[in-house]
Amino acid sequence: MVALVRWGILSAGQMAGRFAVDLRKIPGTEIVAVAARSTRRAEAFALKHRIPRAYGSYEALARDPDIDVIYVATTHNFHKNHTLLCLENGKHVLCEKPFALNAIEVRQMIACASEKRLFLMEAMWSRFNPAYRRAMQWIKEGLIGEVRMLSADLGFRATWEPERRLFNPELAGGSILDVGVYPIALASHLFGSRPAEIQASASLGATGVDEQAGIMLQYPQGQLALLSSAIQTRTPHNAFIMGTQGMIWMPMFWRARLAVLWRSRKLPRIAWGRAGYQYEAAEVSQCIREGKVESPTMTLAESLAMMETMDQIREKIGLQYPGE
Hints:
Rossmann fold, 2 domains, 14 strands, globular, oxidoreductase, nucleotide binding, oxidoreductase activity, NAD(P)-bd_dom_sf
């Protein structure tokens, strides 16, 4: 059993910085190195986060023999290549959501991890936060009866920067892959990862990516998920999980700190909890210690099925990325 899990961070961006801060909250972990596209960026990140090694290339990070697992936090279009780079150099991988550009890439990532017998997981951090987990426990206990419907939205108004990640099709921009993945993941967790019917509509902006999207997923037993995502429209960021005997409300569900259970003729039940990347990182570290190659909470099969759903959604709205 591995007592100390040694991490590398592949990227020196904002998300990587948040992850580095939260990773230090977990006992039995160590950040060994960070890599960026330039040595200068890597060194600045390493200095800020007290990381002993800084690399100006991702290849150097992947080859570092003192690293057990690498967190990949580059832009969506690079997730597959950077994950494969790490796996081929014998490193376990936690890859930011969305897992890749499309299902073809996800299958390649899973195949490589399977061949190398290495751990691989999509970084769906919301699933591991305490308030979210308490809400799922309420459902498991039958407190809202049979879950029949989900309403969830995640949208914000980003500064118009057509060359940057959110609006650039070359970087797999758009709302569905960036934030729509969160409500889709919640629906997957509640109803199963493969909807029976998918309907979608979107507004494609000047750069060709979806600036807002409305999605309806219907599942084999008639359950419905009504979802929306946006990068040019501010939405409430609510999730309402509706059952035959009650309802759960999670405000800011993608980073839930609060869950409220409502049932007829009963006082509301409230669950509080911090939100952070340390919970998903703790899951990865524990799985590695136990010799597991995937998480039972965020399986590779579910990540693949979710990406297949997003592929179908993009097909329905007419969004294809360069090179697909």
